[in-house]
Amino acid sequence: MADQSTAPLPSMAPAPDKKPVVILCIGMAGSGKTTFLQRLNAHLHTERQVPYILNLDPAVTRVPFNANIDIRDTIDYKQVMNEYQLGPNGAILTSLNLFTTKFDQVLGFIEKRSSALDYVILDTPGQIEIFTWSASGSIITDTLAASYPTVLAYIIDTPRTTSPATFMSNMLYACSILYKTKLPFILVFNKTDVTPHDFAVEWMTDFEAYQRALSQDETYMSSLMNSMSLVLDEFYANLRYCGVSAVTGVGFDGFLERVAEARDEYYAEYKPELDRMVQEKQALRETEKKEHLERLLKDMTITEGAEVPLDQ
């Protein structure tokens, strides 16, 4: 695995104790996730905050940005498909599993550059479930979150979310990912140059507005979504969101503001909880080690000096 970074470093390096923010970009296929990452990369270059970019999609034909680390340099997606007789999704999952076995090298490359970085950005496979619900996706996410402040950016195709049913599906998926990872979370409504995300903000902040949108649908699905909207009320109350256009570049300053807020949340809530869990595991390990040693000493005391009969 090679580090392909060729971009110049910022003129002023951050403080030695400062760690870059890891932004995990996830989203449904067609949400504009990769284009969003391209625009974010260009925006950060303009601000002289050159990011470190990882591409974790082995099946993508081309990416519109220069990835510092690209899974395709290590794993041949088509070869995996042929060798293991897998379909497209199975080959992507297997490729990600194989790449995860070498993720310690990735961490090493990031660590070498971390003192001069503000952001590390990851582009994930378009088949969102492959990353969010797989063991390899969890390992990558947890490993990064254990070392760096990590933020999840859930990219949403705004024009395709104008239907109450599609909107609710996206919100339920976002909610499930949030509670699975427990990481700071940002809803990013993309393609606002086509459809403004005002309707989504209104539905999240005004329960009655969403009810009015549902009133035109009298099917069982409408009743189910009505119940779900009540359940998600608390989820909306503490949710960060923003609208961006990956085409025009509008909204990316607001997105970075949300990232800064999420970074503060990581240090205020996620990191202390992570440290507590690590301490508990270490304490449990020490207790088990002590108990094992006591049992060993007890066994040695019981058998000490005992005669061993010999067969004649």
List keywords for this structure.
312 residues; alpha/beta; seven-stranded parallel β-sheet; 7 strands; 12% strand
Q: What is the tally of beta strands?
A: 7
Look at the structure and give the mean pLDDT.
87
Radius of gyration: 24 Å
Question: Percent of residues in helical segments?
Answer: 40-55%
Across the major sheet, the strand order is 3-2-4-1-5-6-7
Give the helix tally: 12
How far apart are the first and last residues' alpha carbons, in Å?
A: 66 Å
Can you write the helix and strand succession as a string? EHEEHHHEHHEHEHHHHEH
Overall shape: it is globular
Main β-sheet description: 7 strands, parallel
Which structural class matches the secondary elements?
alpha/beta
**Percent of residues in β-strands:** 5-15%
Low-confidence stretches: 5-16
How is this structure best described in words?
The protein starts with 20 loop residues before the first strand and ends in a 9-residue tail after the last helix. The model is unreliable at 5-16 (pLDDT under 50). Strands 3-2-4-1-5-6-7 form a seven-stranded parallel beta sheet, with helices on both faces. Helices cover 53% and strands 12% of the residues. β5 (150-157), α7 and β6 (185-190) form a beta-alpha-beta unit. The protein has 312 residues and is of the alpha/beta class. Its EC number is 3.6.5.-. Belongs to the GPN-loop GTPase family.
What is the fold's blueprint, element by element?
Blueprint: E1 21-27, H1 33-46, E2 52-55, E3 69-70, H2 77-83, H3 88-100, H4 103-113, E4 119-123, H5 128-132, H6 135-147, E5 150-157, H7 164-181, E6 185-190, H8 198-205, H9 207-214, H10 220-231, H11 233-237, E7 240-243, H12 252-303
Parallel strand pairs: 1-4, 1-5, 2-3, 2-4, 5-6, 6-7
